[in-house]
Amino acid sequence: MITTPTREAPPSRRRHPRLLVRTTRTTRLAAAAAVVALGVTLAGCASGATGATADPAPPAPPQHQPGGHSLTQDDVDTWLDGAVGSALQTSGIPGATVSVVADGKLLTARGYGMADTGTGETPAEAVDPERTLFRVGSVSKVVSATAIMQLVEKGDLDLDADVQQYLDFDLDTPKGAVTLRHLLTHTAGFEEVIAGLIGTPGSEKTLREAVSEAPPAQVFTPGTTPAYSNYGATLAGYVAERVSGVPFADLLQQDVFDRAGMTSSSFAQPLPADLDARLAHGYPDDSKPAVATEVVNAAPAGAMSATATDMARFMLAQLGDLPDDQALLQPDTLAEMHRPALDADDLGTLVAGQRMDLAFFDDSTPGLAAFGHDGDTQVFHSAMRMFPEHDTGIFLSMNGSGRSATASLDLRTTVLQGFADRYLRDAATADSTDPADAADAADAASRGGAGTVDGDASDGPVAADLAGTYLSSRSPVTNPGALLALSGQTTIVPRSDGTVAVTPKPLGMTTGVYEKVGTDLWREVGGDALLATRTTDTEGDASVEAISWGASFTMLRAQPWQAASAVLPSVVLAVVVLLASMIVWPATALPGVGRRRRDLRAGLSTGSATTTPRRRDRTLLLSRLGQASTLLALVGWAVVAVQAMSFAEVSAVTLRVLQGLQLLGVVAIVPAALVAWRAVRDRRGWAVVTGRVLVLASLVVLAGFAFGFRLIAPSVSF
């Protein structure tokens, strides 16, 4: 008697109904979960889109403090004691130092809180503005630029010459030649660099290593797109070192610090022993231990340490108030440094907003000309402002970030804005809320920079033209660091009254409302913050492509596939599907093993009939291995992103391993497609077909995500 497998199979299936029902139920539940997740995600997106069109109540506008006070030492000391001294106790910032100059001399220097909280091995020590050194962060850039401009004065450097002629390595500039003017105005076109920016003792590099080992890609045409760049400032410093033939730290010591009488300042890392003994410790906040001394390998961009009184000497030098034998630059050179360095030929209509001077930010507000720079390391936070028409300047530095995310920024804003309002504006101007007064003050801005209204507000883009999602120009673009573009995106929503709501507003965590005050200029309602727009006209359809703010930052319109509101739900849904598939895998694999064993006992494993199922099993296995690889890679990238944001070093080997795992997920699209096609062809049932099609779609989505955000890219240097 001849028996066949097909006649025996039905009884076998009937003998194990519970096993098959459990497997089918698990598969159906996984498919249902994926469908539910999709519905929830789409509902959330729809809700978010609906909410975006509403007009919520505008936030309280920034308020100016009462003006008209006399700029005397007693009044300033009393005001600072309240503004700074009291704030330290509530903010969790351990210490601060302040200096103020006026009318050609040091008006006052104050120290608050602790340079050393005494929580480590050294005794507690209070801040002394004449003795205690603080790390001034990016305020270093304007000191470096002063040395560069000394070389320009001598004729050794040309602001508008291609810097390649000064370098001893090839700088790749596919978008156009880079000049010192571009480097000093953050418009050289370089993408952001994060890795290696701040390290710990022992991680020091030479200046040449810092600029030549892994230079960032040039992604913008020079002069056109402000994009804050520590690399650009560092490269400018290296040019000065090359041309002068003197190591950068020594060049600054002899030509800036020694000449100006800044006896407690240095770019050296580590500091000379006598200065290091007086360096304030840096703290996350006053309840935590000090962090190790930060090493800034981009030294010209942020390595300087100085006392508040030394920074007062520097402000006097920039205001032209030092004696001739101590003056750092000629009056004409100072004037060139302190006026906007780029015009409409480079920036287009972005010229309407804040612009960079040579290394300085044009911080002018309506009726009050100003220039300066801020600086931040991980734990030190500083700011300097000079008001040339009042021959006045103020410097502030803190040695801790504070207990809230914006504690140091809030204190910095309070001091700088409060000082200008209290002493440099009269009472009527500071208290006025009349739009006509604001417009008159804007027109009176004498420097021709930020705040000067040009053109008719009825011309140019309207609120609807600004609507959309924007990315920061200060971002990695060509390497896995592009993943960070998903954080910090800005959304602009038009309001029914013609204003726009910007979330988050620049240098803030809340929404700001901006009104149009010029053809391409928008000002924060009730405040001084500016946005300038640049519009492209494509086939008669004008749209805003870029919005500049803060002189060295640009918001660039995101492509639909770059918007976090679209990308993140898609990625989350794809991950949910793959996780469900991973959960189903063992649930279906174990019954399959049991069936194969029973088939072997029944003699069903002989012959060619088993060849195709085994091949199918291998294809399914390859698909699932690719899914697991993709999930592992995504977990790894998430960890790397957190490390990058905290300036922790990530090895190239780690990044290459993650890229390898991600590539395996891309390759797995092929077996996943075969598995899905066979499920459809063999009519495996809606649950199996849906599950495998969703897995295929998820792998495709995550592959697109990996390529779009450069997780798979030749470069891993970010």
Largest beta sheet: what is the strand line-up? 12-13-14-15-16-17-18-19
Determine the oligomeric state from the structure. single chain
Q: Largest beta sheet, briefly?
A: 8 strands, antiparallel, barrel
Strand fraction equals 5-15%
- How much helicity do the residues have? 40-55%
Mind telling me the C-alpha Rg? 31 Å
Number of helices: 22
Distance between the termini: 73 Å
The chain-level mean pLDDT equals: 86
**Secondary-structure content class:** alpha+beta
Q: In one word, what is the shape?
A: globular
In total, the number of strands is 19
- Weakly predicted, low-confidence segments: 1-53, 433-449, 604-610
What does this structure look like?
By secondary structure, the protein is an alpha+beta fold. Helices cover 43% and strands 14% of the residues. It is built from 22 helices and 19 strands. An 8-stranded antiparallel β-barrel has the order 12-13-14-15-16-17-18-19. Strands 3-2-1-11-10-9-8 form a 7-stranded antiparallel beta sheet, with helices on both faces. Strand 18 and strand 19 (553-557) form a beta hairpin. Helix 2 packs antiparallel against helix 18 (564-601). It is globular and about 100 Å long. The model is unreliable at 1-53, 433-449 and 604-610 (pLDDT under 50).
